Amino acid sequence: MNKESCFLIGFISKKIGFRGKISIKINIGNPKDYLNVDFIYIDIDNQLIPHKVDSCILKKNTFLEVKLKEVISESEASSLVKKDVFLNNSKFKNTEKNIFSYQKLVSYTVLDLQKNKIGLIIDLINLKFQNLIIVKNEKNNEILIPLVEDFVEKIDKKNKILT
To answer: What percent of the chain has pLDDT over 90?
Structure first.
């Protein structure tokens, strides 16, 4: 699987117990949308490695507790900590916001609801509880804006505009 046909949903934050369970911190989309996935793809040495999902439970609204079929030991789970987790785009064709990886927003212009230009996205910060975009305005100041799905009115991919 290549990264172009997938989108990043988060990363493995920790191992759980000693039987190979992991916790995935969801950074993009609604974690409830990912409860019934069959496979996840883990970025190991810049290659997406598929892993069959045995079980998946929502924890604390932003974490998924996942048991992978091939991961059966504490040491195997530990080796996956801090690795990025991807899903296949084709499984989420109907949910546009979930397909679009927010990492692709770098270089997008940010507008407020009145269509006033705020600035240009120069970077993203993935934090434990909330993602932020760094926007550089015309005065060369950096503005941190929470990247909350409910606040995103529109993503215009063609014109590279985030409203």
So the answer is: 42
